[in-house]
Design brief:
Elements: E1 19-26, H1 33-49, E2 53-59, E3 65-72, H2 75-87, E4 96-101, E5 110-115
Helix pairs in contact: 1-2
Length: about 120
């Protein structure tokens, strides 16, 4: 399996484009409960809006910062769906957001990044 295979929605080998939303945030909590609560809220939201999926998170060993990984067919729609929930979450304030509009192996895919405000 190659990394590009992870972005395919169609496991039969089709070339469905998977866009990405990756969020870098300052965490600073000793417990992971607030992060898990946010992930639960996002999963429910994404399920009801059918715009993508939350793949998971990475968090530093000292809990200072972390990443959320989300994927879908349209990065802009995906981000618009989750933005209000992110803005309601204190540790997501001023998070760095990266949107990739294309598959991981698409060298021409558009990318943008910005600070969540």
């Amino acid at each position: 399996m190659e990394i590009a295979d992870l972005f395919r929605a169609d496991k039969s080998g089709g070339s469905v484009s998977r866009h990405a939303v990756i969020i870098y945030f300052q965490y600073g909590h000793e417990e992971l409960d607030p992060l898990h609560e946010l992930e639960s809220r996002l999963r429910i939201l994404l399920y009801h809006n059918n715009v993508g999926e939350l793949d998971g998170h990475e968090i530093a060993m000292d809990s200072t910062d972390g990443y959320l990984y989300l994927y879908g067919n349209n990065a802009e729609e995906l981000f618009k769906a989750i933005r209000p929930t992110l803005l309601e979450t204190p540790f997501m304030r001023k998070a760095a957001v990266y949107l990739r509009f294309g598959a991981v192996d698409d060298k021409q895919a558009k990318e943008i990044d910005f600070i969540l405000e």
